[in-house]
Design brief:
By secondary structure, the protein is mainly beta. The protein has helices at about 20-40, 135-140, and strands at about 50-55, 70, 75-80, 85-90, 90, 95-100, 110-115, 115-125, 125-130, 140-145, 160-170, 180-190, 195, 200, 235-240. Strand 11 and strand 12 form a beta hairpin. The radius of gyration is 21 Å and the shape is globular. The protein starts with 18 loop residues before the first helix and ends in a 20-residue tail after the last strand.
Protein backbone atom coordinates (compact mmCIF):
# COMPACT_ATOMS: atom_id res chain seq x y z
CA UNK A 1 0.00 0.00 0.00
CA UNK A 2 1.18 3.54 -0.73
CA UNK A 3 0.16 7.14 0.05
CA UNK A 4 -2.65 7.83 2.52
CA UNK A 5 -5.90 9.65 1.85
CA UNK A 6 -4.54 12.81 3.54
CA UNK A 7 -2.16 13.02 0.59
CA UNK A 8 -4.84 12.21 -1.98
CA UNK A 9 -4.62 15.57 -3.71
CA UNK A 10 -0.86 15.60 -4.09
CA UNK A 11 0.47 15.19 -7.63
CA UNK A 12 2.94 12.48 -6.72
CA UNK A 13 0.53 9.88 -5.39
CA UNK A 14 1.94 6.45 -4.69
CA UNK A 15 5.50 6.14 -5.82
CA UNK A 16 5.85 9.86 -6.64
CA UNK A 17 5.60 11.48 -10.08
CA UNK A 18 6.83 9.80 -13.20
CA UNK A 19 8.22 6.30 -13.39
CA UNK A 20 7.14 5.01 -9.97
CA UNK A 21 3.49 5.80 -10.57
CA UNK A 22 3.66 4.45 -14.13
CA UNK A 23 5.15 1.21 -12.81
CA UNK A 24 2.42 0.88 -10.20
CA UNK A 25 -0.26 1.42 -12.85
CA UNK A 26 1.37 -1.21 -15.07
CA UNK A 27 1.54 -3.64 -12.16
CA UNK A 28 -2.16 -3.10 -11.50
CA UNK A 29 -2.95 -3.71 -15.19
CA UNK A 30 -0.98 -6.97 -15.06
CA UNK A 31 -2.86 -8.01 -11.92
CA UNK A 32 -6.22 -7.20 -13.52
CA UNK A 33 -5.32 -9.24 -16.60
CA UNK A 34 -4.31 -12.19 -14.41
CA UNK A 35 -7.50 -11.81 -12.38
CA UNK A 36 -9.59 -11.93 -15.57
CA UNK A 37 -7.73 -15.02 -16.73
CA UNK A 38 -8.27 -16.76 -13.38
CA UNK A 39 -11.99 -15.98 -13.19
CA UNK A 40 -12.60 -17.24 -16.75
CA UNK A 41 -10.39 -20.35 -16.54
CA UNK A 42 -11.95 -23.66 -17.69
CA UNK A 43 -12.64 -24.62 -14.07
CA UNK A 44 -12.69 -21.12 -12.61
CA UNK A 45 -15.64 -19.44 -10.85
CA UNK A 46 -17.61 -18.92 -14.07
CA UNK A 47 -17.61 -22.68 -14.72
CA UNK A 48 -19.53 -23.44 -11.53
CA UNK A 49 -23.05 -24.53 -12.50
CA UNK A 50 -24.54 -25.42 -9.13
CA UNK A 51 -24.16 -26.43 -5.50
CA UNK A 52 -26.44 -29.40 -4.77
CA UNK A 53 -27.12 -30.25 -1.11
CA UNK A 54 -27.73 -33.91 -0.46
CA UNK A 55 -30.22 -33.12 2.30
CA UNK A 56 -32.42 -31.54 -0.38
CA UNK A 57 -32.10 -34.47 -2.78
CA UNK A 58 -35.17 -36.67 -2.96
CA UNK A 59 -34.07 -40.26 -2.30
CA UNK A 60 -30.46 -39.30 -3.00
CA UNK A 61 -31.15 -38.31 -6.60
CA UNK A 62 -29.86 -34.97 -7.89
CA UNK A 63 -31.04 -34.23 -11.45
CA UNK A 64 -27.89 -32.29 -12.26
CA UNK A 65 -25.54 -34.97 -10.88
CA UNK A 66 -25.38 -38.55 -12.15
CA UNK A 67 -25.61 -41.50 -9.81
CA UNK A 68 -27.12 -41.83 -6.36
CA UNK A 69 -25.67 -39.96 -3.40
CA UNK A 70 -26.17 -40.60 0.29
CA UNK A 71 -24.82 -38.39 3.05
CA UNK A 72 -23.12 -40.39 5.78
CA UNK A 73 -21.68 -38.95 8.97
CA UNK A 74 -18.20 -38.31 7.64
CA UNK A 75 -18.47 -38.95 3.89
CA UNK A 76 -20.69 -39.20 0.83
CA UNK A 77 -21.57 -42.66 -0.43
CA UNK A 78 -22.02 -42.58 -4.19
CA UNK A 79 -23.30 -45.41 -6.35
CA UNK A 80 -23.37 -45.36 -10.15
CA UNK A 81 -23.88 -47.54 -13.18
CA UNK A 82 -22.09 -47.50 -16.52
CA UNK A 83 -24.97 -45.49 -17.99
CA UNK A 84 -24.15 -42.61 -15.63
CA UNK A 85 -20.88 -42.02 -17.47
CA UNK A 86 -18.88 -41.15 -14.36
CA UNK A 87 -15.14 -41.46 -13.86
CA UNK A 88 -13.26 -41.59 -10.57
CA UNK A 89 -9.54 -40.82 -10.50
CA UNK A 90 -9.57 -40.93 -14.30
CA UNK A 91 -11.08 -44.42 -14.55
CA UNK A 92 -14.68 -45.42 -15.43
CA UNK A 93 -16.65 -45.66 -12.20
CA UNK A 94 -19.42 -48.13 -11.44
CA UNK A 95 -20.54 -49.59 -8.15
CA UNK A 96 -20.05 -47.88 -4.80
CA UNK A 97 -17.50 -45.34 -3.55
CA UNK A 98 -17.05 -43.49 -0.27
CA UNK A 99 -15.98 -39.91 -0.95
CA UNK A 100 -14.71 -37.33 1.52
CA UNK A 101 -14.62 -33.59 0.94
CA UNK A 102 -12.35 -32.37 -1.84
CA UNK A 103 -9.73 -29.82 -0.76
CA UNK A 104 -8.21 -29.32 -4.20
CA UNK A 105 -9.08 -27.00 -7.11
CA UNK A 106 -12.02 -28.12 -9.25
CA UNK A 107 -9.63 -28.89 -12.09
CA UNK A 108 -8.15 -31.68 -9.91
CA UNK A 109 -11.45 -33.13 -8.66
CA UNK A 110 -11.53 -36.95 -8.43
CA UNK A 111 -15.06 -37.31 -9.79
CA UNK A 112 -16.06 -36.29 -13.31
CA UNK A 113 -18.65 -36.81 -16.02
CA UNK A 114 -17.01 -36.03 -19.33
CA UNK A 115 -15.59 -32.52 -19.06
CA UNK A 116 -17.79 -31.77 -16.05
CA UNK A 117 -15.99 -32.04 -12.72
CA UNK A 118 -17.91 -32.87 -9.55
CA UNK A 119 -16.54 -31.63 -6.23
CA UNK A 120 -17.65 -33.01 -2.87
CA UNK A 121 -18.24 -30.21 -0.35
CA UNK A 122 -18.80 -30.30 3.42
CA UNK A 123 -20.18 -27.25 5.23
CA UNK A 124 -21.28 -27.21 8.87
CA UNK A 125 -22.47 -30.79 8.98
CA UNK A 126 -24.05 -30.80 5.52
CA UNK A 127 -22.77 -32.48 2.36
CA UNK A 128 -23.10 -31.18 -1.18
CA UNK A 129 -21.78 -31.79 -4.68
CA UNK A 130 -20.72 -28.87 -6.83
CA UNK A 131 -20.73 -29.13 -10.59
CA UNK A 132 -18.16 -27.39 -12.79
CA UNK A 133 -18.57 -27.21 -16.56
CA UNK A 134 -16.13 -25.42 -18.92
CA UNK A 135 -19.08 -24.99 -21.32
CA UNK A 136 -21.24 -23.17 -18.75
CA UNK A 137 -23.44 -20.34 -20.00
CA UNK A 138 -21.71 -17.86 -17.68
CA UNK A 139 -18.26 -18.71 -19.04
CA UNK A 140 -19.44 -18.51 -22.65
CA UNK A 141 -21.02 -15.09 -22.06
CA UNK A 142 -18.06 -13.63 -20.15
CA UNK A 143 -16.76 -10.39 -21.63
CA UNK A 144 -14.49 -9.07 -18.88
CA UNK A 145 -14.63 -7.51 -15.42
CA UNK A 146 -15.73 -3.92 -15.01
CA UNK A 147 -13.25 -2.28 -12.63
CA UNK A 148 -12.12 1.22 -11.77
CA UNK A 149 -8.86 2.32 -13.34
CA UNK A 150 -5.76 2.47 -11.17
CA UNK A 151 -5.99 5.51 -8.88
CA UNK A 152 -2.93 6.46 -6.77
CA UNK A 153 -4.96 8.22 -4.07
CA UNK A 154 -6.63 4.92 -3.15
CA UNK A 155 -3.32 3.18 -2.53
CA UNK A 156 -3.15 3.40 1.26
CA UNK A 157 -0.49 2.38 3.79
CA UNK A 158 -1.60 -0.43 6.02
CA UNK A 159 -0.72 -3.56 7.94
CA UNK A 160 -2.29 -7.02 8.13
CA UNK A 161 -2.94 -8.29 11.65
CA UNK A 162 -3.42 -12.08 11.60
CA UNK A 163 -5.44 -13.64 14.39
CA UNK A 164 -3.53 -16.01 16.65
CA UNK A 165 -6.32 -18.53 16.04
CA UNK A 166 -8.96 -18.72 13.35
CA UNK A 167 -12.23 -17.14 14.45
CA UNK A 168 -15.76 -17.92 13.33
CA UNK A 169 -18.70 -15.54 13.32
CA UNK A 170 -22.25 -16.41 12.29
CA UNK A 171 -23.67 -14.17 9.58
CA UNK A 172 -26.78 -14.28 7.36
CA UNK A 173 -26.32 -15.76 3.88
CA UNK A 174 -28.04 -14.89 0.63
CA UNK A 175 -30.38 -17.89 1.00
CA UNK A 176 -31.69 -16.60 4.34
CA UNK A 177 -29.73 -18.99 6.56
CA UNK A 178 -27.15 -18.06 9.18
CA UNK A 179 -23.82 -19.85 8.78
CA UNK A 180 -20.38 -19.68 10.29
CA UNK A 181 -17.84 -17.52 8.49
CA UNK A 182 -14.14 -18.19 9.11
CA UNK A 183 -12.02 -15.10 9.82
CA UNK A 184 -8.23 -15.06 9.63
CA UNK A 185 -7.20 -11.48 10.39
CA UNK A 186 -7.64 -7.76 9.77
CA UNK A 187 -6.01 -5.38 7.28
CA UNK A 188 -5.78 -2.01 9.04
CA UNK A 189 -5.33 1.34 7.28
CA UNK A 190 -6.01 5.05 7.74
CA UNK A 191 -8.34 7.30 5.76
CA UNK A 192 -8.44 10.99 6.57
CA UNK A 193 -6.64 10.44 9.85
CA UNK A 194 -9.01 7.73 11.08
CA UNK A 195 -7.97 4.09 11.36
CA UNK A 196 -10.20 1.38 9.91
CA UNK A 197 -9.86 -2.40 10.11
CA UNK A 198 -11.82 -4.95 8.09
CA UNK A 199 -12.12 -8.63 8.90
CA UNK A 200 -10.89 -11.07 6.24
CA UNK A 201 -12.94 -14.20 5.59
CA UNK A 202 -11.82 -17.39 3.86
CA UNK A 203 -13.45 -20.46 2.38
CA UNK A 204 -12.78 -23.76 4.15
CA UNK A 205 -10.15 -24.54 1.53
CA UNK A 206 -8.39 -21.22 2.23
CA UNK A 207 -9.41 -19.41 -0.98
CA UNK A 208 -10.83 -15.87 -1.23
CA UNK A 209 -13.68 -16.71 -3.58
CA UNK A 210 -14.75 -13.95 -6.04
CA UNK A 211 -18.44 -14.31 -5.26
CA UNK A 212 -19.38 -11.41 -7.54
CA UNK A 213 -18.51 -13.64 -10.48
CA UNK A 214 -20.62 -16.60 -9.48
CA UNK A 215 -24.40 -16.89 -9.13
CA UNK A 216 -24.13 -20.38 -7.64
CA UNK A 217 -22.21 -19.54 -4.49
CA UNK A 218 -24.31 -18.92 -1.38
CA UNK A 219 -22.78 -15.57 -0.51
CA UNK A 220 -22.42 -14.47 3.12
CA UNK A 221 -23.26 -10.98 4.32
CA UNK A 222 -20.23 -8.99 5.55
CA UNK A 223 -19.09 -9.64 9.12
CA UNK A 224 -20.32 -7.06 11.66
CA UNK A 225 -18.35 -3.84 11.34
CA UNK A 226 -17.07 -4.55 7.81
CA UNK A 227 -18.31 -1.26 6.40
CA UNK A 228 -16.73 2.11 5.70
CA UNK A 229 -18.43 5.48 6.27
CA UNK A 230 -17.35 6.82 2.87
CA UNK A 231 -17.76 6.08 -0.81
CA UNK A 232 -14.90 4.05 -2.31
CA UNK A 233 -14.90 4.57 -6.10
CA UNK A 234 -12.27 1.88 -6.63
CA UNK A 235 -11.96 -1.83 -7.22
CA UNK A 236 -13.96 -4.40 -9.17
CA UNK A 237 -17.64 -3.74 -9.85
CA UNK A 238 -19.30 -6.46 -11.88
CA UNK A 239 -18.86 -9.11 -14.55
CA UNK A 240 -19.52 -7.96 -18.10
CA UNK A 241 -21.25 -10.21 -20.59
CA UNK A 242 -21.40 -10.18 -24.36
CA UNK A 243 -25.19 -10.13 -24.36
CA UNK A 244 -25.95 -7.46 -21.77
CA UNK A 245 -22.82 -6.06 -20.24
CA UNK A 246 -23.48 -3.42 -17.60
CA UNK A 247 -21.45 -0.89 -15.70
CA UNK A 248 -22.00 0.94 -12.43
CA UNK A 249 -22.71 4.59 -13.20
CA UNK A 250 -21.78 5.82 -9.72
CA UNK A 251 -20.00 4.58 -6.61
CA UNK A 252 -22.00 2.34 -4.28
CA UNK A 253 -21.78 2.89 -0.54
CA UNK A 254 -20.69 -0.28 1.26
CA UNK A 255 -23.85 -0.21 3.40
CA UNK A 256 -25.93 -0.27 0.21
CA UNK A 257 -24.23 -3.30 -1.30
CA UNK A 258 -26.56 -6.27 -1.66
CA UNK A 259 -25.44 -9.89 -1.25
CA UNK A 260 -25.24 -11.98 -4.38
CA UNK A 261 -27.81 -14.75 -4.80
Amino acid sequence: MGAGADDANSTGGAGGPGGGQDTAAADWADWHEQRTTTVSAPYGPLALTGTHWLDDAAEGLIPAVAGHGEAARDAVVLTATAEDGLTLDGEPFTGRAVLTADHVPAASARLAQGERHLVVVYREGLWAIRGWDPSSAARRAFAGIDASAYEPRWVLPGVFRPYAERRTVRVPNADGRDRGLGLTGEPAFRIGGDEHALQVATEDDGSLWPVFADAHVICPFPPPGNTLPIDVPAGERTVLTGQHGRRCASPVRPAERRPCA
